Amino acid sequence: MGSTKDKNAQLASNMVEPNQNTRITTDFGTKQNSTDDWLRVNNGDQIGPGLLEDGFAREKIHRFDHERIPERAVHARGTGAFGTFKLLESAEDVTHAGILTDTSRETPLFLRFSTVLGSRGSADTVRDVRGFAVKFYTEEGNWDIVGNNIPVFFIQDAIKFPDIIHAGKPEPHNEVPQAQSAHNNFWDFIFMHSEATHMAMWAMSDRAIPRSYRMMQGFGVNTFTLINAKGERHFVKFHFTPELGVHSLVWDEALKLAGQDPDFHRKDLIEAIDNGVFPKWKFGIQTIPESNEHDFDFDILDATKVWPEDLIPVRYIGEIELNRNVDEFFTQTEQVAFCTGHIVPGIGFSDDPLLQGRNFSYFDTQLSRLGVNWQELPINKPVCPVMNFNRDGAMRHTISKGKVNYWPNRFEAQPPATEEEGAYIDYPQKVQGIKERAKSVKFKDHISQAQLFYNSLSEVEKSHVQAALCFELDHCDEPVVYERMSQRLADIDLTLAQTVANMVGGPVPQQLGRANHCRTSKGLSQLEFIDEKPRIDSRRVAIIIADGFDAFEFNAVYEALKILKATPIVIGTRRSPIFAADQNPSTDKGIVPDHHLEGQRSTMFDAIFIPGGEESIKTLSNNGRALHYVREAFGHLKAIGATGEAVHLLEKAIQLPGVMLSTANDTEAVESYGVVTLKNAHPESLKEIVTVAKSAKGFLERFVYVMSQHRCWQRELDGLSTMV
Ligand code: HDD
């Protein structure tokens, strides 16, 4: 047992699917002939009282009354998918875990993404840390990596978890705000706990507003251990790096999407998998031999610290792919239950004080969320045999036959396994010390890595952190909160502290709280992850048309985007057929747009393209929503393409002297600030070999390359993005 096929078969054995041949029954199997009318005593035309006797009706209502289970205490809002893990290189030098040494295996998995603070019905695009929880159904049992998209955590010791979560969740007196860290309690907590400074900087960076779950890194965060066949132990951190690069929304877009499409990330994942553009991540490990534990100026068991990649490079040994959407949200995504304590032979814990507490908390929370037999639910069930003397409890499914329910027993039935049989063997770690409520001295440096992170960001990213802090602290109305927090920022960077203090009305610090070590590190700025291999797979491109559009230009771009696996979506002035300039509405079918301009806004796309056509552009130029579409996409730094008469639309919408657009005679594309135009779009000029090429000059190649860069940061650096 253990392949994806086996897990799918196991899941399928629990599935039912309504079809024309199935009939409605009660929960106990009796076919029903009406579920629309409660059994009642009528008198001719006079309706009479309902009868308690109607067990069918009572069952239906009872079941409805009990549909809800408690939502997760944190990470309540999420979405998941099935996939596979493939090992590309054996890590047998550091572990004997089958999943990390056997390259012939394909291990099935389930991955659930989430936000942390919001409730189940909150919006996807809020500023928050994202959960990245993976359940590997290995041949030796389930292995869960319950990680985040940020590699560090707010607190060092699990005992502080209720405090940070209480402080971040809506305030107790009025239950405001929902799914936001922008409030007094959260920032009061951050100030009171300087250990949270490092993660707070990550949470204020673009990492906390991802473009897509498919474009975020995943980190195990805690320090685990690996044990090899020789019995040697290494400390380890787990990494997942997305093939599509690490990309974010811009803040204004994230805010708007929260209202315009609260399910944006959910739908994005479903759409990509449905379209066969399966998201992939490289799986990597950072390892440190046990003997080198104390070689660093930070404690490697402190979850508020990264292991800088210049010091400890990530070794990529495998890859995960998500390739199947769930069949049912509740029984799979909602009922999936992760535990950091679930590890398999060859993998162990460390004394990381956050991890130690997590190992208690997750099992415990599943008991109240799902009940004692939660591990028997299909989504949580291992693919290998489960045999033990744990018994009974509410909703037990397994029927354990035989006379014995204890070990040892007179039949010698079901003894524990030996090491040779694959038993989990605890690492014989020597432990010695004083029993006390304290941590080692290296846990006391709370600022160096916050500086390391901030120093490593690009100018654009730094300005986003500043803006995020200005936004968040503006939502704090108690001066003690924003004043003290503005001061704390001076421990990291003076310009940052001064900008924020000035904006939010705190006292403007005149000097650094402590000297800047001026160090930077690899792997912290997300711009590093942009250009590995330029591509536009699954990028959503709005193609905007009105009656009279140019069919040739439309088709050329539409087809090119399809070839490059992007997702072109036609946006019309209405959703009923739109006719090209050379089409006749009474005889031709026209094009049925996917949406109209009001239905899907520019925020939902990575780029926009407008084909020419005299009539079409005349209509769009007089349409406020169309002009806003272009302006908003420009302000959100997105690639914009226009051919033929559509260049006039851009002239009207953007009107910025710095942005050059092509002129009437241009037969070659012009690119300026990520706006790609071609005025004279005759057939020859759009007959290009479509590749994502940096140096290419043709319209299509320029347009898709700009798109592959995700956003045109230069627009923002030159102050153009706020001017439209
Ligand atoms: Fe946690 C859920 C990630 C610290 C207690 N956590 C939860 C989920 C993720 C994380 C991704 C959602 C899992 C899912 O999709 O079902 N948590 C983290 C990370 C942490 C972390 C990366 C720091 C390294 N968590 C942490 C601590 C505690 C908890 C220190 C308690 C001492 N976390 C929980 C929980 C949750 C949870 C209350 C709520 C629902 C659940 O477990 O299954 O037990």
TrEMBL record:
InterPro entries noted in UniProt: Catalase (IPR018028), Catalase_AS (IPR024708), Catalase_clade2 (IPR024712), Catalase_clade2_helical (IPR043156), Catalase_core (IPR011614), Catalase_haem_BS (IPR002226), Catalase_immune_responsive (IPR010582), Catalase_large_C (IPR041399)
Catalase core domain segment(s): 25-415
BP terms from Gene Ontology: hydrogen peroxide catabolic process; response to oxidative stress
Keywords linked to the UniProt accession: Heme, Hydrogen peroxide, Iron, Metal-binding, Oxidoreductase, Peroxidase
Top EC category: oxidoreductase
Catalytic activity, reaction form: 2 H2O2 = O2 + 2 H2O
Cofactor(s) needed by this chain: heme
Record-listed E.C. numbers: 1.11.1.6
A Pfam family hit: Catalase-rel
PROSITE patterns, per the entry: CATALASE_1 (PS00437), CATALASE_2 (PS00438), CATALASE_3 (PS51402)
One GO MF term attached to the UniProt entry: metal ion binding
Residues in coiled coil: none
Binding site for heme: Y362
GO cellular component, one term: cytosol
Active site: H75, N148
Function: Catalyzes the degradation of hydrogen peroxide (H(2)O(2)) generated by peroxisomal oxidases to water and oxygen, thereby protecting cells from the toxic effects of hydrogen peroxide.
Family membership: Belongs to the catalase family.
Stated name of the protein: Catalase
UniProt source species: Cylindrodendrum hubeiense
Taxonomic lineage: Eukaryota, Fungi, Dikarya, Ascomycota, Pezizomycotina
